[in-house]
Amino acid sequence: MQPGDATYATDAERAGVVPLRATDDRLRSVHLAMIVATLDGDGIERIAALAADELGGSVAIVLPAIDVAVIEPYSSEHQLAALRRYASDRLLPVPVQPPPELIAAVAVRSRNEPLGFALLLGADPHPRARQILQLAALAAVNAIALEPSTGRGQAPARAALLADVRGAHPPPPGEIVARARRLGCDLSEGATALCVSLNADQPDATLARIAQEMPCALAAQRGAKIEALLLPASDGVLRLARRLRARGPVGLAPFEPDVSALGRALRFAELAMSVGDEQEIDLEQLQSGSWRSLLKLAAADRREIDELVGTTVGPILTPDAGTRTDLRKTLCSFLANNASIATTAAAMHVHRHTVGYRLARIAELTGHDPQTSQGHAQLSLGMQAVGLRSAMEAVDAAGG
């Protein structure tokens, strides 16, 4: 692959770095060596080492957004931790004190989203420092695209934070924000929760897609699903969810500005994934109207869903010599056919009088007449709650 190839130019545009138009053999040689290292799968460490050799100092590639941090030649974990903090702070709109040994820095971007920085440390000023760092930044982005599992070193920390946020007794909001910030994600203004069901061969590809399109997301695998918190400033959240849904079930919660409520947002997304898959309901539909209200209720206290079912359609759910099964089927058809007795009768292949009798029996058992607007609304909400309860049971069975 040569620097002028169209594929290479596309990768450069995605990285937000213009590839160097080398004017001498030495720069071409460094450029080619980084391309070869990328294609050979040698990793970001090799890219940093090539840049360091050329510039006569240490080169660090620190990408807090995807939990990557390397420095060549390696000095100490203490220095690497300090560079992680520096790069994380630079991604946020706060004043940052640069390390005293810093000579030059170049931003590393993917699809115009900041991932972190390529840094030159402890060297004499070099006339081509920025050019070499730009090449290293571009090569690092390409290496990440070719190796989806890059950055697994902090995967346990991400998974642990999400588990704590989702737990019965989440940490205080300040602790959540601080821990997320150390992982390259600023949750101080809230987030949107995402949940993706996985096939056995999908985890790396799905995590890579999320990292590529939402570099500052906090994402981790949990069993047979991936859950993530996506930052409010990120564009294309719904577009990402739709792309992921083409490969399997996906649930998305509305934006949650309250950090203390992010656990409920994660549970909302998981339930939305389950009910959307069971009933083939669109992602946007689950974020609005009665579905949004029911999912929020279920995420906060699932007992409320049982109470709602019990006070609406509960009396017709228990089979009684088949008759109540018929009542439930009739109600579902009646609700689906715009409360038309004639259409319901035709759909069920029964007489209109049979439908009328069953509707009267439903009103008698539940206390809600499906032929009135108020009764129709109550029973419709009750049947939605039944579907949601089924989704909740599926989540429980899957270990959610």
Task: Please render the helix and strand layout as text.
Blueprint: H1 6-15, H2 25-39, H3 43-55, E1 58-63, E2 68-72, H4 77-90, E3 102-110, E4 113-121, H5 129-146, H6 155-166, H7 173-182, E5 192-197, H8 203-213, E6 218-222, E7 225-230, H9 237-245, E8 250-252, H10 262-279, H11 289-300, H12 303-310, H13 323-336, H14 341-348, H15 352-366, H16 373-397
Antiparallel strand pairs: 1-2, 1-4, 3-4, 5-7, 5-8, 6-7
Helix pairs in contact: 2-3, 2-5, 3-5, 6-10, 10-11, 10-16, 11-16, 12-16, 13-14, 13-15, 14-15
SS summary, helix count: 16
Strand content: 5-15%
Biggest sheet details? 4 strands, antiparallel
Total number of beta strands: 8
The residue-averaged pLDDT reads 83
Question: Which stretches are poorly predicted, pLDDT < 50 over at least 5 residues?
Answer: 1-23, 148-153
Round the Cα radius of gyration to an integer and report it. 27 Å
Structural class of the helices, strands and pairings? alpha+beta
Helical residues, percent: 40-55%
Cross-sheet strand order for the largest sheet: 2-1-4-3
Output the helix-strand order. HHHEEHEEHHHEHEEHEHHHHHHH
Give the CA-CA distance, first to last residue.
46 Å
Net shape: elongated
What are the defining features of this structure?
single chain; about 400 residues; alpha+beta; four-stranded antiparallel β-sheet; elongated; disordered N terminus
Short note summarizing the structure:
With 400 residues, this protein is of the alpha+beta class. It contains 16 helices and 8 strands.
